[in-house]
Amino acid sequence: MTAVTTVLPISPQGSPASATAPLRLVRSDVRMDPVVTQGPALLAGITAGPGLEAHRHRVGPAARPSADELAGWARAVDLRGRGGAGFPAAIKLVSAHRRRAVVVVNAAEGEPASRKDAALMALAPHVVLDGAAAVAHGLGTREVHVVVPSELPSVRAGVAEALRERVCAGERVKWQLHDAAARFVAGQASAVLELLAGRENLPVTTWEPATISGHRRRPTLLSNAETYAHLGHLARVGPHGYAAHGTAAEPGTTLVTLRGDGWDPSVREVAYGTPLADILTRSEMGQPLLLGGYHGTWLKPAQMQALALSRADIAEAGATLGAGVLLPLTAGWCPLVRTEALVDYLARQSARRCGPCRNGLPALAGALGDLVHRGGRVGPVAELCGLVAGRGACAHPDGTARLVTSMLTRFPEEVDLHSLGECRGGGQEVFG
Question: How would you classify residue 268: left for phi > 0, otherwise alpha for psi between -120 and 50, otherwise beta?
Fold first, then answer.
């Protein structure tokens, strides 16, 4: 198991670190843990500690707008979910605003390269819980479920302590804590609902959105931790305060994880519209970038030069921000070797409950391995991408196919070299 604690840096004189000093999540696994830098909104108070008293001293009493008010504000700032799909938060709020609604905070974060939800839950849990409580109040419910990753037991302990603080403070919310399985697909929406129902934490085919029929067939607003943090911030400062950061077209900030599966990961809160060149180093800007995580899209250096952290700009480049993960390719490594390793991992992480996962992804991993390491043909790889996409019980096959398709599109010269048994880059890249 992996343990996570939070450490407040101490200056040489022994006093608490300055408000601008980064924090590090300290874990007991072999990988380095992310440096988390104080941000302008969600991560504004992390150096004060995760306790409720410090949180209330900084932000004041909890905000309690109505569901209609919160939905209107979310629509005004075009607040989108931060779990990967980017679904409009206002639509979810309106759809779930019916009798006996349920609120679910999904902090499972199965994406191995993402550390943002873990950082929030460890360093600023009440920012997230304020958002969940505000949504519950607006929907007229007291039932809130919080799902945390089982592989990070001290994150769970920290969240449990934060919930105890809120209960002792008299908050009338029925909080329930759940442990997600340590696997990639455990955080998928239907897998989370299965967990809450006491069944195996794996995706299943669903016929209605959770906001219509979710937990126990009740309307369920299920979003990730960062989305609830943004809803809490919006409820507190309103649309004008929320728009203090970002651009007129895309107000607000977003959390990004840099090099999340490498040896120097970091979590940062970045305003929309920030140039990618202000986030990555000069050397990283000269390397291909996997944007969005393991289900993401490759970008070549030429595409990145004028690119900003903007949904519109990124979409125009043929990509999505996804889970907010930025993975620059290590200098000297081959993007095909990197992709093949990821697809091999993703094929083994599937739920194996439908044909695309049970048969298609292993076949895709095998065909890609043949191309990358044994001079195989590219045809079977492209064909399998078309066969698995759009046919799974969840989006896992689609995301894997997107990753491979972007590799074929962005690096045709490298694909040709590998089909001839050659490779410009290194052998087997080492990553988390």
Answer: beta
Q: Tell me, what's the pLDDT at 110?
A: 87
First to last CA, the chain: 15
CA distance 187 to 412: 33
- Among the residue ranges 135-149, 177-191, 385-399, the one predicted with the least confidence is 385-399
State the Cα–Cα distance between residues 406 and 99, nearest whole angstrom. 43
Angle at 184 between CA 223 and CA 41, to 5 degrees: 40
Q: What is the pLDDT of residue 22?
A: 63
| pLDDT of the residue at 20 | 44
Predicted confidence band of residue 424 (pLDDT cuts 50, 70, 90): confident
**Are residues 295 and 388 in contact, defined by beta-carbon separation less than 8 angstroms?**
no
> Going by DSSP bridges, is the β-strand pair 289-291/297-299 parallel, antiparallel, or unpaired?
antiparallel
Length of the chain: 432
Q: Catalogue all structural domains in the chain, each as residue range(s) with its CATH number.
A: 45-242 (3.40.50.11540), 273-328 (no CATH), 335-419 (1.20.1440.230)
d(CA 99, CA 180): 27
Nearest CA-CA partner of 134 in 44, 42, 70, 68? 70
